[in-house]
Task: structure prediction
Amino acid sequence: MRELSDPAPRADKGPTRDDELSLIFMCCHPALDIGVRVPLTLRSVCGLTTAEIAAAFLVSESTMAQRLVRAKRKIREAAIPFKVPPADALATRLADVLRVIYLVFTEGHRASSGDALVRADLCDEAIRLTRVLRELLPDQPEVTGLLALLLLTDARRPARVDDQGQLVLLADQDRARWDQGEIAEGCALVGAALREGRPGSYQIQAAIAACHSTAPSAEATDWRKIAGLYGELIRYEPTAVVEANRAIAVAMAEGPAAGLVILDALANAPELARWPQLHIARADLLTRLDRRSDAVGAFRLALQLEPPAAERTFVARRIRQLTITEPSEAPDGR
Result:
């Protein structure tokens, strides 16, 4: 896993001797180009292959390999230390470190390759690293917010696939299978973070996750509150992905037509051009509006973008359900 030097570097004495966290801080060193920090970390910490990283960043494997080689050379030439930096240098790297851990968890929560929906090892490691980081920085509410977000999201892991390994949507999950210990801890953490009065992206995402986790059912969820929280989140994460998620909450609160208006307005957003979830979300709303043909078309667009295996299976199943021809009336024999 640690390929940055030979022999493998050792963590220096300091605030933490956690090798993985030290490696993340090193990969997020400001001397490294911002565009390679995350790929380098995914390769060195997460253990993803160069091919998997290249696919995630929409470049060739050879191009990504060259970038990683240059980054490793930069680490050696600049003598970047393998350790958590002193306290006065943490702030300049913290945002990158949080993003890296978040992406590690995201890859575990929704694996981009392979047949399994979840890579439990990555989810567990991201949570562990966030706990270590919180011990190092207990007064940073965004660190606490990230830990809350990961716990509240991970709590749903046992219910995300059925006994056949098929994807189960949030609305259809057996909430009795959710990890109540993680939910209780996550809710307590997000409450403590928000009381600090320094809100941020991870705290708001954790608040959204708490709304889901404490609702007895999808129908009883406070969707208006969630839509409002997504509106707040856009201030910190002004992306089309956040707006698309807000659209789903709006659809649940105000009806599918209202959500579809927002999603349709995002159709030409460049950052969503390779995001199959946009078409899956549109297909769901179109289905709810009884526009079956349009829904099938949206599902097929999602398949063209090659989502992970578990999602491909789900989408193919939904297409079959929507294209079943009603049996014609049998002749009466007269």
Q: What stands out?
A: The CA atoms of residues 22 and 83 lie 5 Å apart.
